[in-house]
Amino acid sequence: MSNSVISVISRFLEEYTTTTTNKLKVVDAYLLYILLTGALQFLYCLLVGTFPFNSFLSGFISCVGAFILAVCLRIQINPQNKGDFLSTSPERAFADFLFAHTVLHLVVMNFIG
Amino acid sequence: MDRSRLFGLFLVSLALAGAQALTPAHYLSLSDVARLQNLLSQQFTDLDSAYYSVVGLTKLGATVPDHEGVCQFIRSQLDPTSVDSLFFAAETSQAISGCEIPVSNETRDILLAAVSEDSTMTQIHRAVSALSSLGLPLVSQEVVGALTGRINKEDNVMAITSALLTAARLSQQAELGGILEEIEDLTARLDDLGGIYLQFEEGLEATALFVTAAYSLSDHVDMEPHMKEDQVIQLVNSIFSKKSWDSLAEAFSVASAAAALSNNRFHVPVIVSASGPATVSHSQPTLQLLVTDVMSQPLALANVLVESAYAVASKSIILSQAPFTLNDGVFELNFMSSQPASGYYQFTIAVTGDTRLVANHVELKVKVSTEVAVTNMDLSVVDKDQSIGTKTVRVDYPSKGKSSFTADSHQNFAMSFQLVDVNTGVELTPHQTFVRLQNQKTGQEVVFVAEPDSKNLYKFELDTAERKSEFDSMSGTYSLHLIVGDATLENPILWNVADVVLKFVDEEAPVAIQPKTLYVPKPEIQHLFREPEKKPPTVVSNTFTALILSPLLLLLILWFKLGANISNFSFSPSTVLFHVGHAAILGLMYVYWTHLNMFQTLKYLAIIGGVTFLAGNRMLAQKAVKRIEKK
């Protein structure tokens, strides 16, 4: 059983490194970073407590929001998805990404306290 | 059959409507009239105060002192070029005798010129009144034209009231019908408050002047104003509910309204009030009523009679169609001659004699009081098992029973008595018949209620075993008091009837009664402020902060490994501007966190964001072009 899991994972990693373009890998690295940051925040909250709850929430929501926006960006700039996004150029996707991030940061800064 | 039933129903509803007709809740009592006169008699310093004072006092029927002085004052203050000045002077001089205002042709011309559609309504009113008071000729039809034209332009309440007052000064041959209709229109604009008050939202002065104007014009053309009786009473309530007046003008308007309502050809509200409390008894057998107009002046021709009087408790009719006799300005009726039992009676009083009277059916609640006597007071100690015969002692009011009575747990103490009306001998059941037992040593009181039986004989029984909890089982000598009271009794009774010695079983040591400690200072409450939340030690926080920054390091390493670079960076102005703008936005976020509030941030964000957006748009467009070219 574990054998097949390991083989699946190694196969997946191999395919990933060969088939994904550099651009997408850059975005994936960013996604990993956001994920780790969010996970560490959550770990802190579990270990130490929720004292400034609003701060925890705003930080965590910021990570979650940034992750979602980055995933949207990745989907939209992936040339394999071009058929689904005929009217959206990669530049447009990036501009949307920036704008949505501005709004997200405004809200997060408001809530961070 | 149906027709007659409907008609009967109609009559009944009419009667009901009549029975529930409104009666004035407020009017000017003699002290109110005196206060009003006082306010109007103050020293006046200018012409309009003189007008309000002198004319106001005249309307109240009071005498104006020093006519000569007033006349000289008016003449000295008069400005013959001002319409207002002429108005005040002319009206005031009319109110006092022997005062002539010199009139020149110019004065007449100024006044006549003011009567046009282009002057304000106030100006027209004052000019016409001045012309009329000074005896100068004026053409009524022209005035009517000016008024009608002016009403279209100025249709607020005060303007139309002035128009009504002006119309009352014109010749009766003029076409005043159009202006007369304004009375009805204005009546519709009054605000009904709770069915009791009817007033303009502009206030008391407007309402009072409207009433004055309406009756003044109605009397002038001899046509009844279209105001229902209830509306008249509601107006009376509104105008006379205020008992102290803010300004001379307000006081003047109230005085004018009072004069108008007491003395016009159509509606004269009647005020019926009892002189003193509405109580009769054997010592005071006559019910005295004051029947006046709204200024507390007695009505000259009035017949007062009781339409019906019935007892509130039994609803039986005592009087019907009984007349009052006029005795020295007061209407009297000897009610005790009908021998009413004590209690409350509802009188329906009608005032007749003048068709103008309004609200002349009044309901009055009259109390008949009497004196009570306690008779047949019998005290006894009865054995519970009835083996030993009862020993009854009779005690007469107000003496006290000679020997004290003893009752222990095997015996009951009993008391019976009757309460009778001294004058008629009828048995009474007053509201308060209490038996109070007071411990002579400790001062503890226990109060019981004595109840009458079916034959109106009061009985009170004390079962010592059953009632020991009320007494806290404290044996001893108790003084027994009988308390009798009622609203219709003139002589309430507090009578120490006898002393009773009570013996309880399970006696506890007599404890002095503690009065309830309600009013001593209570123990102080220490307020517990909200504890600040426990914070984790700084080391932990710092560690985690460093930990959080570590993924950033990982990201940079990964990007470096992937070969992400900025070699494609073109230094075009839009690119530079975009990056600067974007950095500024991030900086703004930091500043927002530390210093600013949302509104300021949004303001700055709008500016920086706008710039960044335009630059970014440009930059991305350039990149897109480059990308398509590469393809």
Shape of chain B: flat
Percentage of residues in strands of chain A: under 5%
This entry's quaternary arrangement is: heterodimer
Report the radius of gyration of chain B as a whole number of Å.
Answer: 45 Å
Q: Approximately how much beta-strand content do the residues of chain B carry?
A: 15-25%
Question: Helical stretch count of chain A?
Answer: 4
Distance between the termini of chain A: 49 Å
Strand line-up across the major sheet of chain B: 5-13-11-7-8
Biggest interface, CB < 8 A: A-B, 29 and 37 residues
Number of domains of chain A: 1
Low-confidence stretches of chain B: 15-19
N-to-C SSE string of chain A, H for helix and E for strand: HHHH
Global Rg of chain A: 18 Å
Main sheet overview of chain A = none
Organism (chain A): Anoplopoma fimbria
Subcellular location (chain A): Endoplasmic reticulum membrane
Membrane topology (chain A): Multi-pass membrane protein
Keywords (chain A): Endoplasmic reticulum, Membrane, Transferase, Transmembrane, Transmembrane helix
Please give a handful of descriptors for the protein shown:
heterodimer; A: 113 residues; mainly alpha; 82% helix; B: 631 residues; alpha+beta; five-stranded mixed β-sheet; five-stranded antiparallel β-sheet
